[in-house]
# Entry
Amino acid sequence: MEKTDLHRSLSVLPMGTVMKLTDLSARQIRYYEQQQLIFPKRNKGNQRLFSLNDVDKIIEIKNFLSNGMNIADIKHVYKKYQLQKKEKQHRYSKRLTDNETRRLLIDDILTAGGFKSKNPKDQSF
DNA sequence: CTTCTAACA
DNA sequence: TGTTAGTA
# Structure
């Protein structure tokens, strides 16, 4: 991971901020965590602390859901994403960026699942 | 005042 | 998912 990703990985955002940034209820955000889709840190008071990467992922999950996918489908997406990222790095000397890998995987999943929307506004990538 | 967990007229 | 109770 590079230095430009450091600030995006810092968990410093409280629930209230994430609610506004994602336009989701605390209930929904906690549900994503309960489903092991996101892993926010906790402060000494047991309160959740999110990073900007968490926020991006939450919005992505939100879009996946509105595009017809269920929790299981989304878990598969991230599972494959992890595997594919390793494969690519080992198979080629060229190192793909996270965004490039995500783009390929997500586009593949949506196309194969028939979830691809014709409306660009419905997609977060 | 904000957030957390657990539970459901 | 919403909402509410009782905490921290």
Summary: The helical segments of chain A are 3-9, 15-22, 26-34, 52-66, 71-91, 98-113. Residues 14-16, 26, 30, 45-48 of chain A lie near DNA strand B (CB under 10 Å from a C1').
